[in-house]
Amino acid sequence: MVKVGKTEIDYFCDYLARAIHIMDRNSYATQSLTNAIDPNWQKEFVYQEKLLKDVLDFDWYCYGTDGIVCKYSNWNFKYIADHSFLHQPFVDVMSKRKEGPKK
């Protein structure tokens, strides 16, 4: 778990595919990833985690609290329907989030 600003996340950096996968930890006491992420947040994250600055040019995939995965780029989100290239452990969590709480 990593905290960037008011947001708690898990992440996986795939240098070969030039992609960063960021999953919101779904903590109600924090700000959601989709509300927090912007170019300044990205820079803070890269600096804090001591990642190569090249990561800023990678594809950024955001795994939200609602179970939806989006590609983020400069204030814009694009829904990702094809999960075949995503980080599988995060995709598994997204599937559970979409199901909702068990009754």
Please explain how this structure is put together.
By secondary structure, the chain is of the alpha+beta class. It has one domain. It contains three helices and six strands. It has helices at residues 33-36, 39-48, 88-99; strands at residues 2-4, 7-14, 19-24, 59-63, 69-73, 76-79. A six-stranded mixed β-sheet has the order 1-2-3-4-5-6. A hairpin with a 4-residue loop joins strand 2 (7-14) and strand 3 (19-24). The N and C termini lie far apart (28 Å). The mean pLDDT is 93.
How are the SSEs ordered, and which strands pair?
Blueprint: E1 2-4, E2 7-14, E3 19-24, H1 33-36, H2 39-48, E4 59-63, E5 69-73, E6 76-79, H3 88-99
Parallel strand pairs: 3-4
Antiparallel strand pairs: 1-2, 2-3, 4-5, 5-6
User: Any idea what the radius of gyration is?
Assistant: 13 Å
Mean pLDDT, nearest integer? 93
Low-confidence stretches: none
In whole angstroms, how far apart are the ends?
A: 28 Å
Q: Order of strands side by side in the largest beta sheet?
A: 1-2-3-4-5-6
Which series of helices and strands comes N to C? EEEHHEEEH
Compute the number of strand runs.
Answer: 6
Number of domains: 1
What structural class is derived from the secondary structure elements?
alpha+beta
Global outline:
globular
Biggest beta sheet summary: 6 strands, mixed
Précis, in short:
Helices cover about 25% and strands about 30% of the residues. It contains three helices and six strands.
Descriptors for this entry?
103 residues, alpha+beta
